[in-house]
Amino acid sequence: MNESVFVKKTLDFFKKSGNPFIKKMYAFDDLGSTNRTAKELALQNAREGTVVIAQTQSEGRGRFDRVWQSPKGGVYLSIILRPTTPVEKTSLLPFVAALAVAQAIMSYGLPARIKWPNDVLVNGKKIAGILLESETSGATLPYVVVGIGVNLNTPLSQLGFDIQKQSTTLRKEHGSSIEYYEFLDTLFQQFDRFYQIFSAGKFEEIVEEWKQHSDTLGKPIRVQTIKETVEGIADSVDQSGFLLLKTKDGKIVRVMSGDCTDFHEL
Fold it and tell me: Do 40 and 167 lie in a common domain?
């Protein structure tokens, strides 16, 4: 079967990129989910730095199994990691991915900010999302799959009405079409940069960098976790990347994960 234009151009990009972190790339015109395919490859011992990328997804997912709409024009990819750092520190990997995406977007002169834990915003609207999935084996973590979706040249009209209201695209904010492979190259460079910092055990550096790009800290917020809803001021994040929320009675609540909403958005 002949390769499609997208698959051929993407594999050519991989061969020419020279990024030492990306070891293998699988490209598809359409997939159900790049994360699902990457998890299957991880279970088949695919090495760290393996990337699965698709032009579109029919079953893209966000956190809490929400649908991530994936029409042509966006970046949809998953990266396999096999971190050797302490398992308890892998909770910082969402920060690594979010920082890489934010820096790639900022290279176009845009004010990218990060909404805890890993949504990337431009001018208050969501431009990218990140989903990490892993499986534990005893006290070890054999792999982590990092799924990244970026609204690059995505036509907003092809997204659901509710999503359109709270989302934006790099093309819209920049004012012109973004070259897909140029962005991809910048994204992989930034991911390699922050993952090296993480792998070297410089966890405080990751946390401090994230704080500098935070759109959440200092704001009154509501967080919906799997079990409950908590409200308060986003006071800080700890060295594991967990949110420290100061409630109205002065108590500090440590939140591991959840959906974060500014009060003014409610």
Answer: yes
In a shared domain, residues 32 and 137: yes
Q: Tell me which amino acid residue 253 is.
A: V
Q: Kindly report the CATH number assigned to the domain that includes residue 21.
A: 3.30.930.10
Across 161-249, where does the E strand assignment appear? 220-224, 229-237, 243-246
Q: Please tell me the number of Cα atoms within 13 Å of 110 on its side-chain side.
A: 27
User: Residue 245 is part of which domain span?
Assistant: 220-265
Tens of pLDDT along the chain (266 residues) come to 568 999 999 999 999 988 889 999 999 999 989 999 999 999 999 999 999 999 998 864 545 455 455 678 899 999 999 999 999 999 999 999 999 999 999 999 999 999 998 899 999 999 999 999 998 766 778 999 999 999 999 887 777 767 778 899 999 999 999 999 999 999 999 999 999 999 999 999 999 999 999 999 999 999 988 788 889 999 999 999 999 999 999 999 999 888 888 765 43
CA distances from 49 to 26, 41, 69, 156 (A): 11, 12, 25, 31
51 and 129 in a common domain: yes
Domain boundary among 173, 192, 212: 212
Specify the pTM: 0.92
